[in-house]
Amino acid sequence: MKKTELQHPKLSRNLPSSELYKLEDWDEYESLKLSGCDLTRQSAQNISFEQVLMRQIMFTGVRIPKSHFFDVRMESCDLSGTFLEDSRFRRVEVIACRLMGIQFISAQINDVLFKDCNLDGAIFISTKSNFLRFENCSLKNTSFERADLRKAIFKKCDLSSADFRNAKLEQADFRTSTINGIALRAEDVKGAIISPIQATQMAGLLGLHVLDEDEML
Length: 217
What we know:
This protein is mostly beta strands.
């Protein structure tokens, strides 16, 4: 049967608590709960997190490219400036986290929810997604250039000055979000789902003039 909605992380109810102090290449963390760890500015790659609950983790400025996050839930974590190029995410929830300037360049994002997060200045360049949802998030000045955002949902988000040039937006839903000053081309918006008011805004962004029949040119 074809999947029709976003899937949530598959997490055990009684995960054992653990501590994490240092990231190493090819580390694997599975079926555990992490809280209060400070990993600021550490670097490693090819790290795997599977069935992990993270609470109040400091990932600020961390560089962990080519890493895997499967069945993960993050709560009140700080991932500002984190570098996650070529990483993979599947069944992940990111709740009330700071992700300012985070870099998801060329990442694969499947069944991922961002809720009540600050992603201002985040970079999703060339990201591929399937079942991606943002709820009540700040996404100002975020770059989605060349990203595959087909069927993505932006619910009550602030997308002011976000860059969607060359992105795939078929069935991406923007209706409840703020889109002031977004960057995109006429061909980029094809197939996107927008409100009547947003249609007028986008017309202005694309250089069109929307006038009533009785208005003078």
